[in-house]
Amino acid sequence: MAPDLLWTLIAFFLTILVLSYVLGDNALFRMVMMIFVGISAGYGAVLLFYQVIMPRLITPLMTAPPADRMVLIIPAVLSILLLFKLSPRLSILGNPSMALLTGVGAAVAIGGAVSGTLFGQISGTISLFDLSGLSSAGSAISQLFGGIVLLTGTICSLAYFHFGARKKGGENTGAQPAIIQLLAGIGKVFIAITLGALFAGVLAASLAALIERLDFLINVIKPMIS
Amino acid sequence: MSEIICPYCGYSNDIDALTCLSCKKSLYDDVEEPGNPPQQEGMDWLNTFRGFDTKTNASTLDLKPGDGSTDAEPEIPDWLARIRALKGEEAPPLEDESLPPGEMPSLNNQDADLPDWIKEIKASDSPQPGKENNEDFPDWLRNLSAEENLAPKPEASEVSGAALPDIPDDLQMDEPAEFNFDAQSVEGNPIAPVSPPLDIGGLPDEFFQELTAGQTHAAEEIDQPDLDWLLERAQTNLPQEEAAAQPLDEPNWQDQPSLKQPEPEPSANESEPVESAELPAWMFESGEPAGNDTVESTEIDFASLEGNLTGIGSEDLITTPQEEELPDWLLEDKAAPPAQAPEYLPEAPSDVETGEMPGWLHAVRPIEATAPKLVKSEEESRIEASGPLAGYQGVLPGQGVVTHYSKPPVYSARMQVTDKQRIYATLFETLIADEARVGAPAAAKTKSSQLVIRLAVGLVMVVALLAILILQPGFAAFPTLVPPESVAFYDSVQTLTSAATPPRVLVALDYDPALSGELRTISTSVLEDWMAGNSGLAFISINPAGPALVSELVNTAAIQTPAYLTAERVINLGYLPGGASALAALANSPTRAAPTTLDGLPAWESLLLQGMNTVADFDAILLLTDNAENSRAWVEQVKPAAGDTPLLVVSSAQVAPALQPYVQSGQISGMVSGFTGGAAYEQLTQSASGPVRQYWDAYQGGMLLIAALMLIGAAVFGIKNIVRRPK
Predict the structure, then answer these.
(1) Domain extents for chain A?
(2) Which of B51, B83, B394, B456 could bridge across to B380 with cysteines, CB 3.0–4.6 Å?
(3) What pTM was estimated for this model as a whole?
(4) Is A125 in Cβ contact with B518 (below 8 Å)?
(5) What are A123-134's pLDDT values in tens digits?
(6) B714 touches chain A (CB under 8 A)
(7) What are phi and psi of A171, to 5 degrees?
(8) Rounded to whole angstroms, how far apart are CA atoms B1 and A220?
(9) Residues B14, B121: one domain?
(10) Same domain, yes or no: B558 and B576
(11) Domain, as residue range, for B142
(12) Contact A211 B465 (CB under 8 A)
């Protein structure tokens, strides 16, 4: 039996077992899930060792010049300290590594969000109201309408997530201001449409994956039948 | 109520009466009896009362078993009982040899000296022949009477002298050595020479021999040695000996000749101080009733009365015959119960001056008379019967604690609830039970119906898709309207692939194997176009599974482009760990972020990537993703560093809504999302056998079926709700 056919049969049976979930949660489905999780973890560990740890830490520590070795000691020590997180009693030793990871990650995320998303999205929203480059009035009206809808949806969606309450007589009444309530109601519609689009996208992606798997099964079975 | 006994007829009169109601004679006149001078003899009698203790201590009143005077003594110390027992059994009849008849009155003489009213009292209290009046006596006294009747009565000549004095208990103890008085201490007392030898060990015999021989001294001479003896004992002996010497303080009215005192049996109870409850009943009957308790009776100073006895006539004394007879310790015991301190004394005459208690009386006063009485428990009063502590009382009290240990009380931890609360709790339990009973079948029904619906929908979907895939009906037309982002994507690809130099594209593979079926199908057409333009493809992934998917994707795309040199034009940079931080590092310096290929070779020294230092050096960045967060990270971290390099995205349908704003803002140059985007791209490329086209019928049929099922389900549940609502 050719290796490709063997792996094809394995993939076939595993696909059937996954599709058995249509009958409900069962042992075969859970077994396949465990196999996938185990294979993914094992593959990830091997990949990290041979592609990250060995070429980027161990090999340079052995072969690199002393100056580079001194630089590599820092990530080596931090990595070793990170292993102490496995022990609840010694987990405090891993806090410096975790602090470094968290701090760097937060700084990178915030910087990217400000420069990449906030400024980019504001610029893109404003550009819709720039009608100077448009050649026809129809295009201008269409772009302006799109810009108004986009701006309205943005403002109303933000208003929906405004949880402040109105004060009356120095006490919170528990009710939002009327204008906020109006905008929040409109924003609720935009949010519902967005969530509906996301759900449709998930459904479409799942349907595409199912079709691809069924086509795989047909391609496996068809040669056997013929 | 106090009473006055008529000295003539013995009738009991009221305390206020001046004359007897029976014989009409004056109650306060001098009573004269033949051969018994009233006043002088009465004074002698009083003197006898005063010196009775000391006199009897020294000279031992001639009291023998069977003597009638013992009945008036409420308490017979055990030492006396022992002495009497010895004397009654061993000693020969005693004879009064030492004392003159007038100085040492015998019992008969005393009886003759007594006033008539006392005789009457004795006559009334003495047991009548053939009549048992022992009911008035305490139990111990009845026992004594019984023994007396059984004991042989000596002759009348032997019953001479007064009753035996109250000798302390220690005189009768088994160790005579403890009772040896120091002769020098006795000699130190000026009156000591006249006292008898105080060899306590031989005291009883010599004591009684002197008594019987009549060698007693005159009362004045005898009092002092006896007092010294008592004082010395009070100063030297232990408190328990003082307590034992308490009977010495008692007036010798108890030894009245008319009262028979049988020989008592030694018992533990007799060693205790005399309590008023043990006093003879006749004493209380002749005075105030026992139940009438007032404070006045306890406030009378007997010492003053005693000190003025010589100056008081018999008319003053006759009204209170029992006043002087009561011991002062009994009167001072104010804390005693009322029943134990009967009020039997009338008011003292106003002309009687208050005197002080003599020193000797203070000294010999028992401690129990002044100290608060300790209530001994059963354990404390227990006498050891064996062992080295035999005979001791109240030792090892802890033994009783150990032996009488009982389990500690068990307190219930059960909550105390009222009837009302119990009713509420029962009602609440009933409500909960009803809810649980009703809900269980509904849950089972819901679970079974959901299973059926899920199974039916699944089977319908699988069967329909299989049928469409097998039959390939071709009922679904490709979309004629192409999204603008797909058009932009197509334009970018065509622009780059149509350039003179083959483009070098950084392909970021960032999707999970679960959605590889969708993304591989969409990406295959795109990669085929890139391969057709002989583009250099550098794959990198921030997903651990990415490097494995790269080879599969390249191999699938290379099938349609066999002329494409995969080994030369494709390089796999492998896994880039670190998420957004790794992307930032890649944007700043790709050579340091991903220095080697998946095979460990230097990536940036290859022909494909040679001379490239930044991401902007790439002609395009192609992102294959199914994750919105990672897609946004690529846009945020890499795109600003890429400059004018277009960022093209092939995404899953589920992340298209999240990436659409970046498409609108121009941060993403073009995007193909889902089968719809892939079909649009293939429509633009005029591909007749693209992978998306093969699945398009199934995809459209499946979407239609899903829409139909959703509509059917909504209709069914809507109708069901409408039907249920009237209920």
Answers:
(1) 1-93, 117-226
(2) B394
(3) 0.54
(4) no
(5) 888 888 888 777
(6) no
(7) -125, 145
(8) 130
(9) no
(10) yes
(11) 37-267
(12) yes
